[in-house]
Amino acid sequence: MGTTSNDLEQVAFADGNRGLAVGQHGTITMTQDGGRTWTEIESDIWDNIRGLYFASDQEGWAVGDRGLITHTVNGGRTWEHQKSGWWYTLTDVYFINPEKGWVIGDLGTVLHTSDGGESWVKQTPGGFQMLKGVFFFDDHIGWVIGWPGVCLHTKNGGLTWTTQTTGTYNELYGVYFVNSNIGWIVAQYGEILHTTNGGETWKFQYSGTDKDLNKVYFANRNYGMIISDEGLILTTIDGGQKWEVQESGTNNDLYDFALSPEGMVAVGKGGITMRYTVEDEDLPVDLPPKAEEVETLVASGQLSMEVVAYEWEIVRHTNWQTDFADVFFVDSQLGWVVGSNGKISHTVNSGQTWMPQRSPEKTDLKTVFFTDKDHGWVLGRATLLRTENGG
To answer: Which of 48, 192, 273, 336 sees the fewest Cβ atoms within 10 Å?
Structure first.
């Protein structure tokens, strides 16, 4: 196993165990054990890699300096370049399926593909804006953010873009939406912006820090996490009405993080790679869990585990006495609900019947999400539970 002192810009998991981190000077590293160990991937890339996204467990894209767009079809083991037709720095990439994706960058660059990167076409806006983050809720609705305080919104897949007023001129780094209306932006100097109407209006939330905030992720409209410069991690369980600032165990700037069944992996300045683990199944731990520095090599990644907005109803029987807060289904049959007093229930028949599952906690549980039928997480107030066998 090797190490790197190069900054790692982004990290992503292609599946439950295999993840990549990417960064300076074309650095790419891979883990196949949930972040415990990392191995360097050889490539012909020398430019800085700024962003990465996996559209499936095998297919992903990385972007970077001098118009770099590179593509993998085997989970990051090998990479082939795609022609962007651009020489500016590309900073972020987002795909809504293996065919349709967007790449953004300096000088207002927005590129779009509808054929998996075989061809890339420029979409407006242009100008002198330095774009830093991109997020699409579906193939029509998306946002692009950057400097100076820029937030651009499209409702037609990028054919046209409108400028949204953010109320700041600072650099915006990360954007995430849980549906087409509710979203957050994180920025320089500890700024957090929140919208409940798709960005028509943005309001500031108090972060409790003046450090640059680099990445934001929400499991649902209540539970969210932010990483920042100087190794800080911010968490909320009420949609950002209150953010708790916590130390991660490093003073290095953290630029990106990704979730896996093993826990959370964060990467950042100086090649730092930190893995947050839950040692025992269903063990309740403080958020964030104890940090563990591991040897670092880079690999390509951005959050690959996305919250899926399922449309199925929760079936609530009249004999339920628990106030349930969240539901998550991995397919049309298998689902879980969590709620007050540590209650967890599971269905295998689309909610026709529910069976209670054992929980070691009696605190209120707020969020549940699963990566597959076995690996899942339950989150509550200062509590994180993990299962590897479906509960």
So the answer is: 48
